[in-house]
Amino acid sequence: MNATLILARNVFLEARRSGLPWLGLASVAAAIVLAAFLSQVALTESLQLQAALAAALLRACGAFLVALAVASSTAREVADKGLEFMLSLPLSRAVQYLGRWLGHAWSAVLVAIAFSLPLLLWSTPMEVAHWGLSLAFELALVAALALFFSMAFGQLLPAVAASAGFYLLARVLGTIQAIAHAPLSEISWMQRAAQWLIDAVAFVLPRLDAVTRTDWLLYGTPAAAEYLIGLGSLALYALLLLAAGLVDLHRRNL
Fold it and tell me: What is the spatial distance between Cα 226 and Cα 231, in angstroms, rounded to a whole number?
């Protein structure tokens, strides 16, 4: 456990000394500026539109920045043979993998906190707290996702592309599923097969559209059961990704 925490601390310090804090501040500034601009052009419900735009932008920027930070750190280790050096130390691969994820997850939580604070301009502290906690879980899941793809591919661009594609698909899959199941007068066998395929993909992907919702900031906090189920699903999927990453790391000879 001490070795895991020490490695996590080193990973966190590396992220802090990189461009992640400055990119995070730039994202916050961009969200506030765009929201202020929107307040000048919106005719009605300007506060709600500002909160919705800022929340959506900050959530997307947070996921991208965390995925980029994890992928770039791992790709640099692979290119510099630092990963091979670490694996030669008397530490298990599980300790090293979990230590890396804990360090990145720590950074993800701080990003979630920093990105939640500006929303206090438009929403109540309780609503922002619910949204921010959900964002922290979501970004920790993104860190596990990016770490898995980074270890699997070993290169920056494929890891970031795979992480972004996975995240976007998980975000919009609920809408795709609703469109696929829209009532039609006649449903052909091809449409039925497409519905089954979409349902199968939705079954294996996390329902990110059900967490960190913008309407929580506009219309009040969600029901406790719904909220806890959403956070639990994120935690469970993060554990599955960590388990998959450990299996992939143990079966390879680096």
Answer: 9
> Left if phi > 0, otherwise alpha if psi is -120 to 50, otherwise beta: which for 141?
alpha
Instruction: Provide the CB-side half-sphere exposure for 183 (13 A, CA).
Output: 0
Per residue in 137-184, pLDDT (tens digit) is 999 999 999 999 998 888 888 999 999 999 998 888 877 777 776 666
43-79 CB burial, b ≥16 within 10 A, e <16: eeeeebbbbbbbbebbbbbbbbbbbbbbbbbbbebbe
> Which tokens belong to 34?
């765009």
Q: Write out the DSSP string of 118-130.
A: GGGGTS-HHHHHH
Output the six-digit token pair for 214: 């913008």
Instruction: Record the tokens describing residue 148, joined without a space.
Output: 């898995």
The pLDDT of residue 131: 93
Residues 24, 25, 30, 35, CA torsion sign = positive
Structure tokens at 169: 């698909």
Show the beta-strand stretches assigned E in the chain. Answer: none
